[in-house]
Design brief:
This protein is α+β, with helices and mostly antiparallel strands and 160 residues long. It has one helix at residues 2-37, and strands at residues 49-58, 61-69, 75-84, 94-95, 102-104, 115-116, 118-126, 137-145, 151-159. The chain contains one helix and nine strands, in the order αβββββββββ. Strands 3, 4, 5, 6, 8 and 9 form a six-stranded mixed beta sheet that branches. The longest helix has 36 residues, at 2-37.
Length: 160
C-alpha cells in the first residue's frame, strides 16, 4: 500500500512539472510569433538601455550579445526575450520564462538573488558570412512590473 502511495506522489510531481514546462514552452512560442510579426516598436531609451554586439568566434558562427542595463526606474519581475530574423535551430535567449524573473534596479550597490543592474543574453548564429556582410535584424521584448505594479511591455529593434 505504501508503494502505491509513493508511486502516485511521484506521478503527480512529474505531471505538475511537465505542465509547468508545457506552459513555459507555450509562452516562449507566443513570444517568438509576436516578435516575428512585430512591425512597430516603442523606444526603450526613457526606461532602460539596450545594446547589441556581434562577434565572429569561428569560421561558421557569430555570437550576439544583448545587454539590457542602466534602468531609469525599478523594473520588477522582468522577462526579456531576443529574436532575430536568421535561420536557426537554436533557441532564442531569454530570461524569466524558463528561469526566475529578476528585478532591474538603478544604481544598485550590491546584487542580491533577484536584484541586478543589468541582464546579458547571449546567442549564436551559424553563418559563413563575415561580420561586415552579416546584417540580421534583432528584436528585443522586455516585460516588467513598474513602481505601481502595472505590467509593461517595451520593444527594441535593431538592424545590424
Amino acid at each position: 500500500m505504501k508503494k502505491i502511495g509513493i508511486v502516485l506522489i511521484v506521478i503527480i510531481l512529474i505531471c505538475g512539472c511537465t505542465n509547468r514546462l508545457d506552459e513555459n514552452q507555450l509562452i516562449y512560442n507566443s513570444y517568438v510569433e509576436e516578435l516575428k510579426e512585430l512591425k512597430k516598436t516603442n523606444t526603450t531609451k526613457d526606461i532602460v538601455d539596450v545594446d547589441i554586439e556581434l562577434e565572429k568566434n569561428s569560421k561558421d558562427e557569430i555570437t550576439y550579445r544583448v545587454t539590457i542595463d542602466q534602468p531609469k526606474e525599478k523594473m520588477k519581475q522582468v522577462e526579456a526575450f531576443v529574436y532575430h530574423d536568421q535561420k536557426t535551430e537554436d533557441i532564442y535567449p531569454s530570461i524569466g520564462i524558463f528561469d526566475e524573473k529578476v528585478n532591474l534596479v538603478p544604481n544598485l550597490k550590491k546584487e542580491s538573488e533577484n536584484n541586478t543592474e543589468g541582464i546579458v543574453l547571449v546567442g549564436y548564429i551559424k553563418t559563413k558570412k563575415e561580420l561586415e556582410e552579416f546584417h540580421p535584424t534583432f528584436k528585443v521584448m522586455i516585460l516588467y512590473n513598474n513602481k505601481d505594479n502595472e505590467r509593461q511591455k517595451i520593444y527594441f529593434t535593431k538592424k545590424m
